[in-house]
Amino acid sequence: MTRGMVAMRDYDMSGKLGFEDFKKLWGDLILCKRAFLALDTDRSGFFNSREFEQALRALGLEVPESVLKAMMMRYSDRDGHVRFDDFVSCYMKLKSMMKIFKAKDFRNQGNVEFAKDEYVQLCMYS
Prior knowledge:
The protein has six helices and no strands.
């Protein structure tokens, strides 16, 4: 999980984080912890799909139902429970993907173009 979090913040793909990027990563971890503690309403120690969606929304990341279902398939266990470490991984990945998309969406139209190699590199590294 640690290398994955570094990769999601390593926008120049150097394999390292500078101090400012580390501070942002640390801030994201604190936000995730606060959201998890506040929105695990049944105090089960994991999120169900409703809590998971509420947490993402509280952190400013709204996704369509189809994307939420895909994320639940990827980040939850067999019983539909999302543990804290999986929530952090999902949040970091989604935030990173949204930042990359926004940077390419110059006209704010919701559509971008990627060359195949660029797309594969971004998917594999982030």
